[in-house]
């Protein structure tokens, strides 16, 4: 069976793993630089400050403020928590779930400033704390994915920036699983964000490792392939393009492993879709 010949890449061609490692690091740095530049052009609600002299006292203040019923106190608490996290991760770790609960609430808020602060805080805490405690981690990712389709441009930028921070900072399987949980969304912007992020994760994690399923990445491979096949006939041209682009990345990495993975990971009906599109 011939699969996915929509590019001219020969089946025998594979990517050099050593080159991939360099590309992965370069891509990660490029993502951070580009997204940090974009967000800086909007309004950075969480500017860098000098390291705190009294982080323990600030953490106590954060706890007190979060218990307050005044939302303005919650804003201050989250901002202070992010500042603590930049230099004192161990001190903040016992309190991170309480902070993440408030971030989830702010992501669901109707006020733009709350949502933007939640997006930027989530991105910073992905980078510094790297907390993947469920269900809060999944709730934050879902909230951010939803906000990639927000009508407010600044919120869309903030949400995508935070998700890029997640992709670079969080282990691939956690990121892929949470992103895949948003599979029920029909909004094109969310589908585009999902495919874009999956492509980035695949490159950063190394396509060869994804295909081989090493280091616990078999489930990630399954979710990636199922997402691609589910969107490869989407009415939206950009979604179809991103889906095929990701499939082509895997195919060109190692054709034999790619075909084997398709047979293992997707249903017969899905496989027929793949075969039908093999000439595109």
From TrEMBL:
<dbReference type="GO" id="GO:0005815">
    <property type="term" value="C:microtubule organizing center"/>
</dbReference>
<dbReference type="GO" id="GO:0090307">
    <property type="term" value="P:mitotic spindle assembly"/>
</dbReference>
<dbReference type="GO" id="GO:0072686">
    <property type="term" value="C:mitotic spindle"/>
</dbReference>
<dbReference type="GO" id="GO:0005876">
    <property type="term" value="C:spindle microtubule"/>
</dbReference>
<dbReference type="GO" id="GO:0000776">
    <property type="term" value="C:kinetochore"/>
</dbReference>
<dbReference type="GO" id="GO:0008017">
    <property type="term" value="F:microtubule binding"/>
</dbReference>
<protein>
    <recommendedName>
        <fullName>TOG domain-containing protein</fullName>
    </recommendedName>
</protein>
<feature type="domain" description="TOG">
    <location>
        <begin position="44"/>
        <end position="275"/>
    </location>
</feature>
<dbReference type="GO" id="GO:0045180">
    <property type="term" value="C:basal cortex"/>
</dbReference>
<dbReference type="InterPro" id="IPR034085">
    <property type="entry name" value="TOG"/>
</dbReference>
<dbReference type="GO" id="GO:0005881">
    <property type="term" value="C:cytoplasmic microtubule"/>
</dbReference>
<dbReference type="InterPro" id="IPR016024">
    <property type="entry name" value="ARM-type_fold"/>
</dbReference>
<dbReference type="GO" id="GO:0040001">
    <property type="term" value="P:establishment of mitotic spindle localization"/>
</dbReference>
<dbReference type="InterPro" id="IPR011989">
    <property type="entry name" value="ARM-like"/>
</dbReference>
């Amino acid at each position: 069976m011939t699969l996915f010949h929509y590019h001219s890449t020969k089946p025998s061609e594979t990517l050099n793993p050593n080159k991939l490692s360099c590309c992965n690091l370069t891509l990660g740095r490029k993502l951070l630089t580009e997204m940090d530049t974009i967000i800086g052009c909007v309004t950075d609600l969480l500017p860098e400050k000098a390291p705190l002299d009294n982080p323990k006292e600030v953490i106590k203040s954060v706890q007190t403020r979060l218990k307050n019923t005044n939302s303005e106190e919650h804003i201050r608490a989250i901002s202070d928590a992010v500042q603590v996290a930049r230099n004192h991760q161990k001190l903040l770790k016992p309190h991170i779930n309480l902070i993440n609960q408030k971030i989830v609430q702010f992501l669901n808020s109707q006020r733009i400033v709350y949502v933007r602060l939640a997006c930027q805080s989530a991105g910073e805490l992905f980078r510094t704390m790297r907390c993947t405690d469920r269900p809060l981690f999944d709730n934050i990712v879902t909230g951010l994915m939803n906000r990639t389709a927000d009508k407010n441009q600044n919120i869309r930028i903030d949400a995508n920036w935070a998700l890029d921070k997640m992709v670079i900072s969080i282990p691939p399987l956690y990121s892929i699983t949470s992103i895949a949980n948003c599979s029920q969304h029909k909004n094109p912007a969310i589908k585009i964000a999902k495919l874009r992020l999956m492509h980035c994760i695949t490159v950063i994690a190394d396509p060869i490792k994804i295909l081989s399923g090493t280091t616990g990445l078999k489930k990630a491979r399954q979710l990636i392939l199922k997402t691609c096949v589910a969107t490869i006939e989407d009415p939206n041209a950009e979604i179809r393009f991103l889906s095929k682009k990701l499939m082509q990345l895997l195919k060109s990495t190692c054709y034999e492993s790619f075909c084997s993975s398709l047979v293992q990971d997707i249903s017969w009906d899905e496989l027929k879709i793949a075969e039908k599109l093999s000439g595109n």
